[in-house]
Amino acid sequence: MASITIRQLDESLKQQLRLRAASHGRSMEDEVRTILRAAAAGTTEATPARAAPRRNERAAAESPAPISKPMVPVGHKRILLIIGGGIAAYKSLDLIRRLRERHMAVRCILTAAAQEFITPLAAGALAGERAFTDLFDAASELDVGHIRLARDADAIVVAPATADLMAKMAGGHANDLASAVLLATNRPIVIAPAMNPAMWANGATQRNLAQLMHDGVMTIGPNAGEMAEAGEAGVGRMAEPLEIAAATEALFGDQGERPLADKRIVVTSGPTHEPIDPVRYIANRSSGRQGHAIAVAAAAAGARVVLVSGPVNIPDPPGVRIVKVESARAMFEAVESALPADCAVFAAAVADWRVATPGREKIKKQKGKAPLPLALVENPDILATIAHRKTKRPPLVIGFAAETENVIANAKAKLERKGCDWIVANNVSPETGIMGGETNSVHLVTAEGVETWPSQSKDEVARALVARIAGALTGDQA
Ligand code: C5P
User: Fold this and answer.
1) Which of 226, 270, 332, 334 is most buried, by CB atoms within 10 Å?
2) Is the CB of 269 under 6 A from ligand 1?
3) Domains in the chain, ordered, with CATH?
4) pLDDT of 49 over the 50 cut
């Protein structure tokens, strides 16, 4: 009887066999045994050789035979990781490990562009299951198919989410496996955008992002920092694998811990800067810590959060959509376009006035002459305008009142004047150390009365406020 060994096969056959075995999670010897068994039985396992395989079939191999699916241990969540085509794709390989470390089973889809950066073989090897690449791959259509890929997951993570993939998702395209699965799924979707800062800032990407947020897609990042392109920096770096893994894990918190699931919350935070000339501005003191903490707590409670932030020196919180603005008018526009929402929390220290006509050039000191007076005009009152809206008024509108005296009396008057539902009032006189500090002691002023909360960290104030918001929105008052 003739004896053949894998070593004797020619290189190209060996390579095909290696890829095919890897894609099925078998050793090469087992793969050969399976092919021979199928051939002897007259089934279709032994596929007739085709001319050069198409690129996206390189790893999938052309087997229409059932694909052995690894068992997902009981209690493990199943993540479908869609890897888009960007340099950040290399971080997605690490993400697979981070997800698996957290007891999540991972199955990967690579877009055609992703395969220019990483191979299905690498993704499949780390996931412990073949990676999928092709919408018209007979093997996957017969076995799992794109609809089953869409449904066989507890959540879908898109990382990196390129500008193109986001555009396809926003437009409902389905011309490749990744977009078809994203259109077919009814599972939660988290995207981790990654692209050049100019592409991220482009109006088209921001419109697509707004549409995706509206459709219930959650985002993580992008972060600010260095780009792969030499000398480029800005917002566009993919969130780190650990951040994405944590955000994914947070999706599966027990429902009791996610009382704001499916709720939309808009939060303003930080100061606004109102230009005097190109180098000077008017601003209020605000670190943005309290507003950012509220955004984080709301996201942790399952809400879809839009954080409209003035200029701050603290990191972007993960898991929320951040719209960065400078002036009160820009903040107002950003809040308007984030509506409708179930709740709006106005924690920003908005400048009450702006300079009527900011200098186009830096205003020069004139030796011996008094400075020119600055003519000021009033800024829009974002809180009062939104609270008095006849349409699209969020059912719960919350303002902040930073006072230095008569805190409660002023807060009660403000509740009335601004037309909001609650005011979170605090004493920010310099001796309290609250401004820019770690702790806060607040009073919650509502139509029902005044509650004085103990002095606690800004994170704790945020969590307590979010718990109250959840109680009010779900009718489940604690
Ligand atoms: O009037 P005062 O600045 O004290 O009110 C504070 C509350 O009003 C905060 O919630 C703040 O975010 C909001 N506000 C606003 N737009 C302004 C001024 C204040 O949203 N122009």
Assistant:
1) 270
2) no
3) 77-250 (3.40.50.1950), 256-354+375-474 (3.40.50.10300)
4) no
